[in-house]
Amino acid sequence: MLITRAFTKQLNSRKKIWARCLSSSNFRSDVVVCGGGLTGLSIAYHLAKRGASVHLFERGCIGSAGASAMCNGVMTAPCFWWDSGTHKIVENSLKLYERLSQDYSIQLTKCGRVYLGETDSTVNTINRMYSRAKIWNDSAELIEDPLDISSRWPMVNADDVKLAFYSPDDLSLDPIALCHAFKNECLKMGAQIFENTAVKYVLIGEGQRVYAVETDAGLIETKNFVNSAGIWANMIPVKNLINSTIRVAIHPCTYTYLSTEKLPQTGINETTPIFVDMDNSLLLRATDYGTTCSGFQEPSISSLGFPQEAVGWIVPPVDWDKFYPVLHALLHRFPSLGQCTRTDLISSAEAYTPDGYPIVGESEQARGYFVANGMNGRGLPLSGGVGELLANWILDGFSQIDISKVDATRFIDMHLNMHYLHERCPEVASNTFKPFHYSHQCHTARNLRMCPIYYKLRDAGAVFGEIMGYERPLWFKINSTGTRSSLHSGLDFLAKKSEWFPCVAREYEACRERVGLIDMSSFSKFEVKGPDALKFLQRLCSANVDQKVGSTIYTGMQNERGGYVTDCTMSRLADDHYFIVAPTIQQLRCMIWMKRWVETWKMHVDLQDVTSLYTALNVVGPSSRYLMQDVTGKSMSSTDFPTFQCRIIDIGYATGIRAISITHCGELGWVIYIPNEMAQHVYEKIIESGQEYGLLHAGYYTLRHVRLEKFYVYWGQDIDASTTPVECGRTFRVDFKKDFLGKQALVKQMETGVTKRFVQLLVDRLDMENDPWPQGSEIIYRDGKMVGWTTSAAYGFTLGCPVCIGYIENEDFGVSPEFLNTGFYEIDIANRRFPVRVNLHSPSLPMISSEHPIHYRPTQ
């Protein structure tokens, strides 16, 4: 009791001193950071390094609580991640930690990691990781013989292991010592760190902008606040905000690990590698002073449910019954664990997101309110690089690294629902030791957003995948039964023909030779109206949108550096009224971007998100013109309804349907936007009339296969905010005669040339029955040297080979046509190299429709 009173007295005295400091000369700050874990400290470090004044507040002591304090100190190498953006973040973390460990004598051991796989799917994943690892370290190694695995590491039972991968760049370090190193660096550079001092609330003022933060030590004025409070991120009150807090799409789940004595095998020391059983989600770290092991099997993971008003989250006590299945799996893989007698089961909680990527960036709810949370159990490898990314973002207004996968605005309100997060996040946590690919489908929290014809599509054989909570058909099963599961989950194996391949081949044939029907309701849709609508969009878009009423324009919205904020179609419905269709994942991002410039330029424009008001059906194929004529009773000839036009049409009894003569894949056709209450009627009319033309339902996989053959890029996979029209061959869409955002950057690129260029790659000598298939994120080689990455892939049914889109880079001399058209190119698919042919422009594919041999080609 005396100790407690003394500590309280000391703490109150310290708070008074801090309050005096804040109320005198140091009451302003460039940035206030809430949270003294690895992420918050890294952000403060990088801000202070660039000369910003920083105040960091931690409600406890640095390194004493939260996920950073409970971190097992295992650092995952960059090769674990599929995408190049996360690669760069983790690379930056590694470089930073190695430097800090030298300056502060932090215990850092380059022990490496051994990934174990027992299924064909995991073997395929391991081979892809190895392909990435060997680029940076020749010591990366694959071991196929189980006897060899057990002889090198006797603690491993490798009887059922098909392949092991030794990653030499994984390491172990002391996370608490790293926290204190960050703290010391921050203090040396002038940052102020307040421990045992909580943030009480954030104040939002005019223009929904942060202007101050109230803390236990007093009020501090600032224009920038960073929420890196971990699992407590959603508990920071915000004044003058309707919900009194800014919600972040994270939810805490428990993780449990077992700490025990040294394993009985000889030769175990600090350099003994970390072991990960990928199929069973197990980890073991053995040293000469003890052993730590854990498992992330979904049944063993508990969501923390809902916070209590007074105390917030309560981490439940350890539960041996829940841990027992994990322990059983650990004893199978590492039998000598059973000889250890002294054990300690430890439980804590970590913040997880709906898609397994962290949340970084500025909130759409308040300007100057930044978020860096949801590290998904990978805080150590990500925190260093995330800190640099966000610090640059705050100070420069943008990031040099592609942030599309981690951007806070990739989530919409539905992702903030507590019940949704409660169900989804334990599944995400169960994939802690498995790399997420963009095509991965979760099995939890599904059937949330469904178009009005969802059940019609399901009965027609649809297999649904989820994007932004929206269920859209990926493919349609042949001769499906009513009892089948209609929700696809997991990751496609893609090392031989998948179950969907014959289905997609059938759908592709219909779209290219007859007519197909594709549900595209998930795409983001916006309306821009008002007296300044034209003036606003002309400045915002790189294409000339001042076209006749009834015209549709493909255009990019570029940022100040010329990169794509979005790639969209824009239909002019009236002089002052435009209808915009953008990728599904940009529903919030695109709206935020437009609102920002409406306010900045003080335009008289009304913006409305109408995504959920319309069902969108893509009628595609050479017979689409005849089908559309049948259901509308109007002429749809190339003269009466040419390509890139928009009309308001009737189908059956339904009115007010917006028909746009584009298909997003280069085939003849229309996308029709139907008011939801009329969608079922219109759908039935199309299906009825389509029987005459051999109409088939088609899914999003078919759309992908068709578009990739014609070199259509997709925002978020192929292009992003770091890609310009010059780099992806779309400058012909840009109108350099007018002023628009990003024009100067594009003009400079046109004058000086670029060092990166997007190309289409045709893969040769690949056996579709036995070889691994490209999935995107494969490394591209030119004359044996790495020159880039693929971004997406599909099978080209007309071209007769797999087709990829990717970029080739040459920072030394640029990427001239001569450079791109010479040299021997290959891509590495799961540790197998295949020669590829490089196309700078769309190939001329044979078209069934006699009127469409000169179809739209997206690069020329």
From TrEMBL:
InterPro entries: FAD-dep_OxRdtase, FAD/NAD-bd_sf, FAO_M, GcvT/YgfZ/DmdA, GcvT/YgfZ_C, GcvT_C, GCVT_N, TrmE/GcvT-like. Residues 454-738 form the GCVT N-terminal domain. Gene3D superfamilies: Aminomethyltransferase beta-barrel domains (3.30.70.1400), D-Amino Acid Oxidase, subunit A, domain 2 (3.30.9.10), FAD/NAD(P)-binding domain (3.50.50.60), Probable tRNA modification gtpase trme, domain 1 (3.30.1360.120). One of its GO terms (cellular component) is mitochondrion. Pfam families: DAO, FAO_M, GCV_T, GCV_T_C. Residues 756-838 form the Aminomethyltransferase C-terminal domain. Residues 396-450 form the FAD dependent oxidoreductase central domain. Residues 30-393 form the FAD dependent oxidoreductase domain. PANTHER family: AMINOMETHYLTRANSFERASE, PYRUVATE DEHYDROGENASE PHOSPHATASE REGULATORY SUBUNIT, MITOCHONDRIAL-LIKE. Belongs to the GcvT family. This is Pyruvate dehydrogenase phosphatase regulatory subunit, mitochondrial. It comes from Acrobeloides nanus. The lineage of its organism: Eukaryota, Metazoa, Ecdysozoa, Nematoda, Chromadorea.
